[in-house]
Amino acid sequence: MTFYEYLIYFCAVILPWVMGGGLIVYLFFTKKKISTLRLVGLSFFSALLAWFLASLVKYNIPSPRPFEVYANLKPLFTTAHGDAFPSGHATFLGAFAVGVFLQRKKLGIIFIVGAGLVAIARVLANVHWPADVIAGLLFGALVAVVVGGVYHKVYSK
Fold first, then answer.
1. Is the Cβ–Cβ distance between 77 and 12 less than 8 Å?
2. Coil/strand/helix, residue 23
3. Is 4 exposed, middle or buried (0-12, 13-18, 19+ CB in 10 A)?
4. How far apart are CA 78 and CA 127, in angstroms?
5. How buried is residue 78: exposed, middle or buried, by Cβ count under 10 Å (0-12/13-18/19+)?
6. Exposed (0-12), middle (13-18) or buried (19+): which is 154, by Cβ within 10 Å?
7. DSSP state at residue 76
8. Smallest Cα–Cα separation from 5: which of 129, 130, 124, 123?
9. Is 71:117 a contact under the CB 8 Å cutoff?
10. How far is residue 111's CA from residue 2's CA, in Å, rounded to a whole number?
11. Domains of the chain: which residue ranges?
12. CATH fold label, 3-155
């Protein structure tokens, strides 16, 4: 593999774990334990809910991946066949990043950039179409906004 391919692989496969782990490490080192625990909880809940809802679409509507449509394209790493739309990674990370952003703007921007890098890398790795990751990011963001709104409506009384 070339450096370029390693970079794509890192962004597409490893960076999501670094982002999740980074937020948990942040929890242990921050002085604002309660608000940070809420940040982690709401962000992960939003991400899991978005991923679950997107999976209902993903596994019921056939959508081939780029390497399945064009024989000359080779995926950079092994991935499932079909079930490309929407991207589960982009959906999860879109919700996760926006969940963080809604509570901590500066930290959230870092996570939004990270989610964007993962989405771009998954397209460059030939495992998703641009529409797969864009739809995933937008749907994840929508779920995070709804979850955040419901949380604040219920618990701000």
1. yes
2. helix
3. exposed
4. 9
5. exposed
6. exposed
7. S
8. 124
9. no
10. 26
11. 3-155
12. Vanadium-containing Chloroperoxidase; domain 1 (1.20.144)
| Relative orientation angle of helices 88-103 and 15-29, to the nearest 10 degrees | 30
pLDDT digits (tens, 9 = 90+) for 55-114: 998 888 888 888 888 888 787 777 777 788 899 999 999 999 999 999 889 999 999 999
| Structure-block tokens of residue 132 | 């797969």
pLDDT (tens digit per residue) in 26-43: 888 888 777 777 888 899
Most distant CA atoms of the chain, gap in Å: 58
Structure-model confidence comparison of residues 35 and 147, the more confident one: 147
Encoded tokens for 77: 């790493």
The answer to whether 141 and 133 have CB atoms below 8 angstroms apart is: no
Q: Residue for token digits 């179409």?
A: 129
Upstream peptide bond of 86 is cis (omega within 30 degrees of 0): yes
pTM for the full predicted model: 0.89
The alpha-helical segments, DSSP class H, found in the chain are: 3-9, 15-29, 33-58, 66-69, 88-103, 105-124, 130-155
CB atoms near residue 54 (< 10 Å)? 24
Residue 82 DSSP one-character state: S
Q: Is the pLDDT of residue 125 over 70?
A: yes
The pLDDT of residue 157: 61
